[in-house]
C-alpha cells in the first residue's frame, strides 16, 4: 500500500510538472500584451526608475522580462485637474526610460514596430491616453498626442468631458444629456482618420453606443470586466459585449479585485473599518490612496485573504468568449492603477499564472495566444493599416 501511495504521489508530481512546463512553453511562445498599465504617472510623482527591479509597485523592466511580457501599453493618466501638459510630461518620462535602456525597451506606434521590438527581444512600449479631458476639447492637441505615439484614446476617465459622459457620472444621473455630442463624434472620426484606437473603458453606456455607432473601425475596451458577474458601472453589460463583437473590437480584462469580484468591496470596507485609526494616521501623512496601499502592506496576510482567486479572471474571460467568441478578448491588467489584484497576481512577473489558468480551464494553445496578445495585434493592424 505504501509503495502504491509513493507511486501515485510521483505520478501526480510528474503530471503537475508537465502541466507547468507546457504552460510555460505556451506563454513564452505567445506575444504577451498588457493593454493598460498606470506606470508613468507614478514614475514622475515618485522619481523611481522602473528600468530597475523595484520592491513596490507592479511593474519594472526586470519583472516584465520574468513574466514574459512582450508589449506594454503605458497609460497616460491624470484626473480632471490635469491636462495636455501633464500628458506630455508622462510621454517625456517614457521617452527617457527608452533612452536609458535602449537594449531592453523600444517605442512602438504600430503593429510592424511592435513585432520588430518583440523579435529583438525588447519590450514594445505603446502609449494609451486615459481620458479625453487631456485633449482639452482641441482636435489639434489630439493630433499632437497621436504624433507623439498615442495608439489609443480613452474617451473619458471617471470625469466626463464637455463632449462625452463617463460611466461614473452618467450612472449617477449627473449628466443632463448623456452620450457624445457633435464634437465628441468628430473626436471619434479624427481618431479613425489617424489610426488611433477608440477606447471605451470608463465611458457611460450612452457614450459607449454613440461611439460604437460613430466609429468606422473596430474599437478597444482597454481595461474592463463583465457586468453580469459584478454589476458595477465600470463593467460591460451583455448587450455592450455583443456590440463589441459585432464591431470587431476586443475587451481587455481588468485584474482589479473590485471589478472582478462582487464580494470584494464589502470585504475591503470591513478591512479598512477594522484599521480605521491606523488608516486615518496614514492618510494624514501620505494621502488616502498611498495610505491604503501602506495599510495593505502592513497587514498583508489579512489583505490577501479578501482577494479573489485567479480563476475569477478566467470566469470573466469565459463569459465574453461564450457571448462573442475568443477573437474578442485581451488582457488589460491595470497594474499600478489599483490596490488589489487576484491572489498570486502581484506584478507583471505573474502573467504566466494567467496562461496556466486558461490552460487548466480547457483553452487551446491557439486560443491562449489570441487572448494574450494576438487579438490586440489584429486590432492594431485594423486601425493602423499595417
Please identify the top-level CATH class of the largest domain: Alpha Beta
Number of helix segments?
18
In whole angstroms, how far apart are the ends? 63 Å
Low-confidence stretches: 10-18
CATH architecture assignment name of the largest domain:
Alpha-Beta Barrel
Descriptive keywords:
six-stranded parallel sheet; three-stranded parallel sheet; single chain; 18 helices; alpha/beta; 9 strands
Structure description:
The protein has helices spanning 2-29, 40-46, 61-66, 84-100, 111-119, 139-147, 167-170, 182-194, 205-214, 238-247, 257-260, 264-274, 276-286, 288-298, 300-305, 311-324, 351-361, 365-384; strands spanning 33-37, 71-77, 105-107, 123-130, 150-154, 197-199, 220-224, 250-253, 329-331. The chain has 386 residues and is of the alpha/beta class. The chain folds into two domains: 23-261 and 309-384, TIM Barrel; 270-307, no CATH class. The strands form two sheets. Strands 1, 2, 3, 4, 5 and 6 form a six-stranded parallel sheet that branches. Strands 7-8-9 form a three-stranded parallel sheet. Helix 5 links the parallel strand 3 and strand 4 (123-130). Helix 9 packs parallel to helix 10.
